[in-house]
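Question thread 4412

I'm putting together a teaching handout and wanted feedback from people who do this every day. The idea is simple: show students a protein as raw sequence, then show them the structure tokens that encode its fold, then repeat with a second protein so they can compare. Below is the first pair exactly as I plan to print it.
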Amino acid sequence: MRMHKPPHPGEILKKDVLPELGLTVGEFAAHLGVSRPHLSNLLNQRAGITAEMDLKISEALGQLPGLWIRMQATYDLWQAEQAPRQHVAPLRKAA
């Protein structure tokens, strides 16, 4: 189990990427071709990165695809590890 909570990708976009680029939420949303409320939900951690959004952000930032969705998967897995759940016993090979 991971000890530290990984950041939500929206948090990184909001706190690091947008200020570095000098863009508002509305400007970034327009550039990506998404609605401002849709991007706002992502930046405020009320929504996650989809494969389509990963491609849009990666293209806009000149990155290889996959970075943002992997960050989302890491965040989601950490969240799931923190939640109470019924553990599943490992399967055993038949003799």
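The second pair follows. I'd like the answer to focus on this one:
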Amino acid sequence: MNVLLLSHTTDLAGPTEAAVSYFVETGETLDVLLHPLPYCVDHASQVGRAEQGAWVWRKKVWPKPLPPLATYFRDAILTLFWGLKFGRRYDLCLGVDPLNCFVALWLRRLGLVDKVVFYTIDWMPNRFTNPWLNRFYHWIDRHCVAHCDAAWNLSPKIVEVRRAQGLAEEKNLLVPVGVEFEKIKLPDPSTKTKATKLVLLGALAPSKGVDLVIEAFAAVQKVLPEVELYVIGKTPADATEDGVRYEPYEPRFRALGPKVHLLGVMNHDQVLTKLPEFDLGLALYKPYEGNLSAWADPSRVKDYLACGLPTLITAVPPIAQDITLHNAGVVIEYEPQALAQAVLHLANHPEEFLEKRRNALAYMENYRWSDLFLKAVSQSL
């Protein structure tokens, strides 16, 4: 099968990278074009071809940064150009999010693609603060829904949106975030006796609850001196969210003392190797109307759980309900005191911590990327 995958990427791995790995490992002929979002450290797009389980060639193109709007326009042109330049017909084209799917639909009109899958990994009513840009985004989104052959949706909330938009049930597929378990090596359970190592994974931004972590950690340290915090990720280069600039978080973390360890950005394989060393995962999304995570299935939460880390989470993303249902962590209010109490409780009740750890691992057995993609592809062809 010939597959074309078109997507934007972030500094951290997610569903796009998992899809690339899946199609490479299953031996399909895969052409990819990946564009970094404007805030990424590396501004170059990546293009390449894999055949029979190995990369034939890969390279980076156009590394020069541009303003955000110009970047999206450039990305669409590059996608169309390379879609033509690859010079082959595809059985399946995966267009991740509206702009890439929009180009995929044009490639289908040109006779280069048989089936187009619209893969939505994030969606929200107010995607952009600029109202005109937001209307244009949703016009493209509705166009893709109306003309795709199948829609893969990251969360049940997005499935409901597609249903309301009139998408046929047989095309409206739930494809949640999974994990590559073969890349995870769990430690001996006997070494996990007390929850004292906390980890915060991902880009450092206000919507991710970083301010809450900083405020609560000092209070936890006073009661539990042995507690440590590990931060995997960094403040994005533009340090802007919802149109508002914010100061880098690293100086504030350093001010908390030597028990805070800033590990910087890691690739996903390194993340999956490192996470099992810790005890509790932090996913403290800030509750407000414009938080994209309310519609998402955050990869970091699935990574925490798959590595045996009970997760402390706010009720913002839908997966918080599953964490409560399966007793795989603690859902807390967005308050420093609530976070401090949850950490201290699990640190002082090792039996409860170990039970939640076992539950986290059992829950994630249903979320292997290979199984999720195999089912989705079979339903889409």
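Top answer:
Good format. For the second protein you could add a caption like this: The domain at 2-175 is CATH 3.40.50.2000 (Rossmann fold). The chain is about 40% helix and 20% strand.
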